[in-house]
Design goal:
By secondary structure, this protein is mostly helical. 89% of the residues lie in helices and 0% in strands. The chain is flat and about 50 Å long.
């Protein structure tokens, strides 16, 4: 049961990593296509979206094989600046008492 839960979390992390370049590609494709919708721009936009998806899949697979997707997502989401700030406040409170 524990392994299944870890595997599901890794899949969720993998999807989050794939979504990042895919959303950037979607934004670029929309910026290219919507101002002047033509067939040529549509083909270019679709190509950019597919390229972004492939890059995201390759990137997510590489991260999964090395350190794990949840480790990567947690490192990206971490806020070391706030951790240092909390540590300084705790130290200041100790010195005041």
């Amino acid at each position: 049961m524990h392994k299944i839960f870890e595997y599901i979390l890794e899949i969720v992390g993998w999807l989050q990593i794939v979504a990042s370049p895919l959303l950037i590609g979607l934004g670029i494709a929309a910026f290219i296509y919507f101002p002047n919708p033509t067939v040529t721009r549509l083909v270019l936009a679709i190509f950019i979206i597919i390229l972004a998806l492939v890059i995201g899949i390759i990137w997510a697979n590489r991260i999964w094989k090395t350190k794990g997707t949840m480790w990567f997502v947690s490192q990206v989401s971490a806020t070391p600046d706030l951790d240092n700030l909390i540590g300084k406040e705790t130290e200041k409170n100790k010195n005041n008492h």
